[in-house]
Amino acid sequence: MANLICEELKAYVPAKDYPLSIAFYQQMGFELAWHMIDFVVYDPSGVLWRIGQNSEPM
């Protein structure tokens, strides 16, 4: 497990105050990434799957 490399970390955070949440995460060093094509699906047991693809090559 010592050789694991993280290419991306994406947070999907529901927020009551969206502008405040955006400012908080930007102050922590996160960047906004709006170039992702994604959708969500709930499976029969209620699990939420978020499926996405970057629209630009990494």
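the 2nd protein, sequnce then structure:
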Amino acid sequence: MYKSMITTDFATVKIKKTLFFGVLILITSFGFAQKNNKIEIGTVDSVFSKVLNENRKVLIHLPKSTRLTGFSKQKYPVLYLLDGDVHFSSVVGMMEQLSEMNGNTLCPEMIIVGIPNTNRGRDLTPTHSDIDPPFVTKDLSEQSGGGEKFAAFLEKELIPFIDSKYPTAPYRTLIGHSFGGLTVMNILTNHTALFNSYIAIDPSMWWDRQNFLKETEAKLRTKDLVNTSLFLGVANTMDENMNLVKVRNDTNVMTKHIRSILDLNDFLGDKKTHLNYQYKYYKDDSHGSVPLIATYDGLRFIFAFNQLKLTIGEQMNFNKAVFSKIEKHYELVSKHLGYKVTLPEAMVNSYGYQSLVSKNNELAGYLFKMNVTNYPESPNTYDSLADFYEANGDKKNAVANYQKVLTLDKDFPETKDKLERLLK
């Protein structure tokens, strides 16, 4: 049921197919939540960590579909974002653009968990490092090496907390930049199954005089990383007179950062680990500017399978063949994500009405009944099915389904009026 597109008298409905194409976009085109004349992109939550002996705040963004009324509740993959206090707003906007705006399906809708820092030098360094000028100062050296405790916090406390409180699906992505990228590589190497996909952005692989890099390569040689994805983004941190060829033979300490990442890429690029891997060098981006574009490219790489590619003609002239294509797409998405992804209720609902207006009653009935089967707790699915029966003159089934709506939601929009009209 969409009040903006369907009247209650289906015998007189005359809606152009082009309107439905617009509706398919409109139902996915509202963004950040608005409340009290303020735009909100998330909320602040917190969990006390026994592992770290401190309270940890987390920033939470939920997809817009969690705010739809009358629809069944969905479960969503989760994106965990290191340095959340820095990158949360940009990644939220990016995710909404890729998964919700203008009908985009470049990424699945995802819950975003931004993890602000309390002691970055402690948590995001996987091992202790002695003083190593100019990068590791005395203060950093003294606090370094808490990465394994931080990993334990993620695994034993934060992830279970998020799973218990929010509608999560069993697919997780971890994103980190600089020391955060170092942490991404540590968790990928030593806690591989904790996440399904990883984005390491200009990671500090020089850490501890490259000893961590050597240990990472040695450990990954023994792992089969099938079904694990990694995107490695690299910034241009070289002087203007240097390039990727020259820097390989450079010994200046200031090029150690990029040389270490290039060494890591050499190792990962041989494909022996079966890792789903992509590397990209950003010639025109610095260490500070690279997170935005690398996050975008990383998400596009990891979720390349998620885009539903329908031509405008297929959307405008929807039929059984087009729907079969959609069903096969979601089978593929389910395979990649590792759990069954049910066809979205709102999408099937829209195509059901499109079929109804096009007088393809067989397909319309099939779609509305499918939604009831897939989402039996949704009042919307029964209301739509009742609309279908009413449009086809089946008063008995229309009444039964409108009554079912009201048992699930006594205030569901328009249903009372439609039921009362039929019972007169």
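Residues 313-423 form a domain with the Serine Threonine Protein Phosphatase 5, Tetratricopeptide repeat fold (CATH 1.25.40.10). The longest strand covers residues 168-177.
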